[in-house]
């Protein structure tokens, strides 16, 4: 394999990781912005899209910020931490739905928000890790097209 192929392969891997980093920034920003739904109940016209409690808003904002930082700083581990934290928060919300005062507040719509952003960030973080572990100049088995 010549050096030009290695350089081109390394550029492709870096380009793939940059795409995953941009996706992590977008998902983290979505999570951060979703925390404003905590104000929905007190708005002059109630926002009925999602019912987010104060605890859930803090989790969405904090872990959304971690996801943004992970993408901006090119740190896959931060992306995975944000995704894992949001997914765990969704599971906590699911487990506490029958309780009257829920620790995170909100309802099942908040569980859906937490789960969606968490699973999305986990998927991006794991795909980024897979792209980083693929040697330059090769393609992942998942990216190869089957021969007809």
From TrEMBL:
It comes from Agromyces humatus. The chain crosses the membrane at residues 23-43, 49-70, 77-96, 108-127. The lineage of its organism: Bacteria, Bacillati, Actinomycetota, Actinomycetes, Micrococcales. Keywords: Membrane, Transmembrane, Transmembrane helix. The keyword Transmembrane applies. This is Uncharacterized protein.
């Amino acid at each position: 394999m010549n050096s030009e192929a290695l350089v081109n392969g390394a550029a492709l891997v870096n380009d793939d990781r940059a795409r995953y980093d941009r996706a992590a920034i977008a998902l983290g920003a979505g999570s951060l912005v979703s925390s404003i739904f905590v104000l929905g109940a007190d708005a002059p016209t109630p926002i009925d899209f999602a019912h987010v409690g104060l605890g859930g808003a803090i989790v969405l904002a904090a872990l959304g910020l971690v996801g943004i930082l992970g993408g901006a700083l090119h740190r896959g581990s931060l992306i995975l931490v944000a995704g894992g934290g949001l997914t765990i928060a969704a599971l906590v919300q699911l487990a506490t739905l029958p309780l009257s005062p829920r620790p995170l507040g909100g309802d099942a719509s908040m569980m859906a928000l937490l789960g969606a952003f968490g699973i999305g960030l986990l998927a991006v973080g794991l795909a980024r890790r897979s792209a980083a572990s693929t040697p330059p100049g090769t393609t992942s088995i998942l990216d190869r097209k089957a021969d007809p």
